[in-house]
Amino acid sequence: MGYPKLVIDKEKLGHNVREMISICKKRGIEVCGVTKVYGGILEVEEVYIENGIKTIGHARLENLKDMEHLDVKKLLLRLPMLSECEDLVKYVDIALVSEIEIIRKISEEGKKINKKQDIILMIDLGDLREGIIKEEVNFYVEEIIKLENVNLKGIGVNLTCFGGVIPTNENLGELVEIGKRIEKEFEIKLDIISGGNSSTLYKVLDGTVPKGINHLRVGEGIIFGTEAGYQEKIPNMNYDVPHLELEVIELKEKDSAPTGEIGVNAFGEKVEFENIGKIIRCIVACGKQDVEYKDITPKNDKIKIIGGSSDHTIIDVTKSDKNIEHGDILNFGISYTALLALGTSKYVYKEVR
Ligand SMILES: *Cc1c(COP(=O)(O)O)cnc(C)c1O
Q1: C-alpha angle 30-139-214 in degrees, rounded to nearest 5
Q2: What is the C-alpha separation between 265 and 335, in angstroms, rounded?
């Protein structure tokens, strides 16, 4: 296997999965393990399943299709496209929805294969990404229960994704209240009240998550060990599950500032360089085509990324206490954004070890 290589530590990931399940279980919350940011690596899905996850969430239907054979419930996170509904009823166990036309289409497709499709109706409580507005709740529930081949499994909310709205007692409490009202008025039972993503974890940790929330869709919290509301570390987790390995292709002592008449770089930017004399410059084989260099951090804190272009990342290794040579492999910590890019790049090798 070559480089760039995205490495996922199986033991550390497994620990985080078990720990997250246990943290949430104490509050009566089931964890849907969201693996979308890895792109879709079957070995990763297996780690989640082996460590107790019962539902996996992906944003792309293709990824759920690829794991059809795995013994786990499959939840589609992104609202389905009308053109996807035919596949949806085949490969998805639970779908998040918000448009009546699409829900009707799901029912129609479900009828063809004699399936009653579980759906979670998304409600927008201020973050302004997906979800129906509160005033539409009654209309939606009325229409949904008329449909033969969909089952209203529950309701859900998504927060801190677009508008940056933090989950609170008010908005989560409102979700619980809406759920209760639906159950009473329509005399139905909602199995799932899905209280959001990793940004709700801080309320699970401090014990203030409103009673009634019984489901969370957790990506970042498991993968990076952080809650997403305030970006705090969750105690007793691993914070370095994924890392990036890059190979050195050039290592030379050169000037710290360019020589010649200065125009713009390959990306049309005018870049300023501080002249600090000669430095040891190292090039690794990875560039913007794989990941933005701003989203990765060298594990060796004596070395510093200076910049990068499409296929190259340039690092100042002058102060490194380790001897670096071409052919060496350097390790980097990665952000959520970096993982998203690396996971979906065909140039990046992926290893679960
Ligand atoms: C990505 C996603 C999640 C998981 O978000 P994290 O912040 O990584 O926990 C949950 N719900 C929906 C609808 C998503 O798209």
Answers
A1: 10
A2: 25
Is the minimum distance from the CB of 131 to ligand 1 under 6 angstroms?
no
Distance between Cα 159 and ligand 1 center (Å): 9
218 three-class SS: strand
Question: Residue 320 and residue 298: Cα distance in Å, rounded?
Answer: 11
Ligand 1 center to residue 263 CA distance, Å?
Answer: 42
Specify the residue with its C-alpha closest to ligand 1, atom 12.
77
From 77, 128, 175, mutation site for ligand 1 pocket: most ligand atoms within 8 A of C-beta: 77
| Dist. CA 304–CA 300, nearest whole Å | 9
Phi-psi region of 321 (alpha: psi -120 to 50; beta: other; left: phi over 0): alpha
Average pLDDT over residues 105-109: 98
Contact 248, 186 (CB under 8 A): no
pLDDT at 272: 84
pLDDT in tens, 296-347: 999 999 999 999 999 999 999 999 999 999 999 999 999 999 999 999 999 9
pLDDT of 279 over the 90 cut: yes
Tokens (6 digits) for 24: 């949430």
137-146 vs 169-186: helix crossing angle, rounded to 10: 40
